[in-house]
TrEMBL record:
Gene3D superfamilies: Pheromone/general odorant binding protein domain (1.10.238.20). This is Pheromone-binding protein Gp-9. It holds the Pfam family PBP_GOBP. InterPro entries: PBP/GOBP (IPR006170), PBP_GOBP_sf (IPR036728).
Length: 158
């Protein structure tokens, strides 16, 4: 959870849009996102100990039988936040165009914005046929985490 708040702060600092209207818009998105994530964390009874790290998601830890409930809770937490942000509907369909709008808003000034769009498209396609919202949301997160780790490895080796 602390990493999410840190992420939000970094985004505020990193994005220095040319107009104060754009800065207010981004700050509002970040504040709303943080509020929704925190509310969904409480709603789904997710503790900081339940949250998998990036490396954990790249391993088989979430698929181990003893972690089934932890994985389900985390997936439901993500689904709740996606719904509150209008990025997933009640039928567990991901609002793909809206995801790309959010990427544009949050990563508009980053030169690697195309990479974020590519990862988003790949992962949304990968989970499209999963019908259970908690499973779909967790799978989306795992896909993105693995893609980020792969991208990191690529950048470090080139």
């Amino acid at each position: 959870m602390k990493s999410l708040v840190l992420y939000a702060c970094i985004l505020i600092i990193a994005f220095q849009p040319s107009s104060s209207i754009e800065l207010k818009k981004i700050k509002n998105i970040i504040e709303t996102t943080v509020n929704d994530v925190e509310a969904c964390q409480a709603e789904n009874n997710v503790t900081d100990a339940d949250v998998y790290g990036l490396e954990d998601m790249g391993s088989d830890l979430p698929t181990q039988p003893e972690n089934e409930e932890r994985t389900r809770k985390m997936g439901c937490w993500i689904a709740c936040a996606l719904k509150r942000q209008n990025l997933m509907d009640e039928d567990s369909n991901i609002n793909e165009p809206q995801i790309h709008v959010r990427i544009n808003l949050e990563y508009g000034d980053f030169p690697d914005q195309a990479i974020v769009h590519r990862i988003g498209s790949k992962c949304m396609k990968e989970v499209r046929d999963i019908t259970q919202e908690c499973e779909k949301s967790f799978s989306l997160l795992v896909c993105a985490a693995k893609a980020v780790m792969e991208e990191r490895k690529y950048l470090l080796n080139h």
